[in-house]
Structures are given as structure tokens and as C-alpha cells.
Amino acid sequence: MDELIDQWLDFMRHNRGRSERTIQVYRLALTRLEEFLVEINRDWLAATHDDLLVFTGLWLHRKGLKDPLSRRPMVSAVREFYRWAAVRGLLANSPAAAVPYPRAGRKLPRVMTLASAEKLMWAPEFGSFNGVRDGAILAVLIGCGLRVSGLARLNESSIQREVIDNQPRLVLQVTEKGNKQRRLPVPEQAALLLGIYLEHPELKAIDRLLPDGDQVLFVSIRNRTVGEHEYRGENRRLRRGAVLAMIKKYGKQQGIPEEQLHPHALRHLYGTELREDEIDLVTRQRLMGHADPKTTEIYDHLAMRKVTRDVDRANPLAKIRTPASDLLRQLKANP
User: Fold this and answer.
1) Are the C-beta atoms of 242 and 220 separated by less than 8 Å?
2) Based on the number of CB atoms within 10 Å of its own CB, is 264 exposed (0-12), middle (13-18) or buried (19 or more)?
3) Which residues touch 87 (CB under 8 Å, ≥6 apart)?
4) Are residues 195 and 292 in the same domain?
5) Taking each helix axis from N to C terminus, what angle separates 114-122 and 263-276, rounded to the nearest 10 degrees?
6) Which CATH number covers residue 241?
7) How far apart are the first and last CA of the chain?
8) Does a structural domain hold residue 75?
9) Backbone φ and ψ of 169, nearest 5°
10) Overall domain count for the chain
11) pTM of structure
């Protein structure tokens, strides 16, 4: 059965273009499904629709996946696996075809505030190579709205130089979910910090060379995985977990609330600020790399500065005299 699972994962990786992160989630899902089928003494190809309903619902819930959103990737893996098995002729029909995705309300994402982002940008020690690297990473995350997976995959060739409005500018070619690519203009502040990082003598001393002649962009500093003689090229690439640990370290030093200390909170800040400045939906969708504009529209609910100014100006209380009107006027006059 392991060989069959590997064949399916290879199919999803190469034919469907699924990312390595998604492949890992799919493998975990089928490992859990195997555990369930052993419990009920059922062969993989003999599983019924009812079996899979129990697995994706009650069984996973009892195993700790109580949030419906956490079970959706499991349902996706089961449906895709059995559909593939049916297409290959291993089954007459897929028993998972009608297994429903769990319903869940859509939560608003947690966003890092501008004040927290400013504190974070000042946290690294720019007198050290580590600090220069971390400052460049934070600037790219905050200024370009990258997913951390996209940041970790950047190579030096991902940085492209163009002339825009008669000025030299940097553009990032980013590869993220489903190996989809997009190009993003780099803010001038981030471009400056990237340039300082790329010219740092300690970076120049690191072997970042890849087999295709490119070079890893953001490097790791501590080696805990390979022999010293292999600590070069792809093995020097900074991993997702290291970025998360870096944000948490600096955030705690700066007293930033725990719920904001995640790379995606920086991405949500980027999306929210685009909305605050009334960037049109199509442009925001392209910059964020969203396949569905409905995903981009969630930032309409997070952008509060402009809507607050609009409400202060247009709400009925602003147009009548109330017991609070004179006091409010005095408070604004003498802050």
C-alpha cells in the first residue's frame, strides 16, 4: 500500500503541481486514514462511503481535529486519493466522491498592526550579519506581503532589476502555492535592506551555489541537519520554521502581542494596508496571489482607518447636536 500512496503523491506533485507542504499534509492524512482502517479491520480498497464519513468526521474529531477547518485538508486528500484510484481502474467508483467538506464559519485573520510592524523592523541588531539578514527578511515580508513559503524559496535570480518611471527598481518573481508565480514591486526601503544584505562580506563567504548556477537568497546560520561538509547550496536555505522563530523572538523582545507573531499576520497587514489606500480589487488580488477574489475581499472587513473616518463624517450623530457634542469638541481642541 505504501507504494500505491507514493505513486499517488508523485502524481499530485508532478501532474497537479501540488507544493511540498501540501504533499506533506496529504501524506499525514493517509497515514491517519491507514490507522483508522486498521482499527476497523478494513482494506484500503474495500473502504465504503460510510467508513470515510466516520473517518473524516467523528474519528478525526476524537483525535483532536475539532476545528472543521483543520479537517478540510484531510477530506481533500481522501477524495483525491480515491478519485485517482478509480481513474486507474483499481476501483469501480470512488467511495469518497460524495464525502462532504466540513462547514465552518469564516474567521477574520489576525493582523499585525502598523505600530507592531515598526517595532519589529527596529528589533534586529543591524551591526551583525544575522541582524542585516533578519531586517531584509522582515522588510520583504511586510513590504511585499509574501507567504513564508514563497520567501523561503527565493533565489538570487528571483530579484529582477527594472527601470520604472525612469528610476531603477527591484521586482521579485515569487513562486508560492501550487507553484504559481507572480511578480511584485519591491518597496524602496526593502530594496535598500536587500542590497545591504547581498553586499555583506559574510554572505559573500557562504557557498550558496545551486546546481543550476543560481544562489539561495536567504541563508541559515546554524547547521543542525547535515554534516559540515554538506552545509552549502540548498542545505543553506533558511527554512519556514526559522522565519517563524525569528519573528517570535523579536516580537517578544518588543512586547508585541502573541497573536500577531506569525508570518501570515505580516501578510495580512500588507493586504489590509492595500485596502486602506483604496487599491482596486483586481490589483490587490494580483499582488496577494489569490486565486479567488473573495479571498481578497476579506480585507474589506479589516481595513478600519478609512471606514472610521467615513463613519465619523457621515453617521447621523455627526449631523445633530447631542449631549456629547460640546464635550467632544472641547476634548479635540485640548488633547
Assistant:
1) yes
2) middle
3) none
4) yes
5) 130
6) 1.10.443.10
7) 71
8) yes
9) -135, 160
10) 2
11) 0.72
